[in-house]
Amino acid sequence: MMGLIWNLIGGVLSIYLAVKFIPGVEFTGSIKYLVFAGCFLGLINFFIKPILKIITLPLRILTFGLIGLIINMLIIWAVDIFFPELDIKGLFPLFWTTLLVWGVGFLLGLSKPKKKVIYEETE
User: Fold this and answer.
1) Of 110, 31, 30, which Cα lies nearest the Cα of 13?
2) In principle, which of 14, 24, 60, 119 could form an S-S bond with 101, CB 3.0–4.6 Å?
3) Rounded to 5 degrees, what are φ and ψ at 90?
């Protein structure tokens, strides 16, 4: 459950940062649609991305993980298609947005609270 919440926060934050700092990424809607687009990105990253990782495992091995970057770019492109308020103009803004989404997810993953495992001793 906490992983889903962190993915939603990461999606919203990364789309907001991409709109603010990456030239070629624009958002014309209200903040409500930005949150919806970020939540959609977070949901895709939580539910669909692990399935795509398993399916593309042989390609990931052959390309030394480079196909993962392409999969991430396709996911962000899908968000761009589903939300007409989000406009990513070209391949380079899409690439930098993908790297930004990866970086935000990585940093949020580092700051995630760890689960405490308690072992009970049985006799």
Assistant:
1) 31
2) 14
3) 105, 175
| Among 44, 46, 52, 31, residue whose Cα is nearest residue 82 | 44
Would you state the pLDDT for residue 81?
A: 94
Q: Average pLDDT in the 64-76 region?
A: 93
* CA torsion, ordered 94, 98, 104, 106, to nearest 10 deg: -170
**Residue-level pLDDT at 123:** 63
Question: How far is Cα 23 from Cα 1, in angstroms, rounded to an integer?
Answer: 34
What 3-state DSSP class applies to 76? helix
- The per-residue b/e assignment along 38-56, b for 16 or more CB within 10 angstroms, e otherwise, is bbbbbebbbeebeebeeeb
Mean pLDDT, the chain, as a whole number? 91
Residue type, 70: I
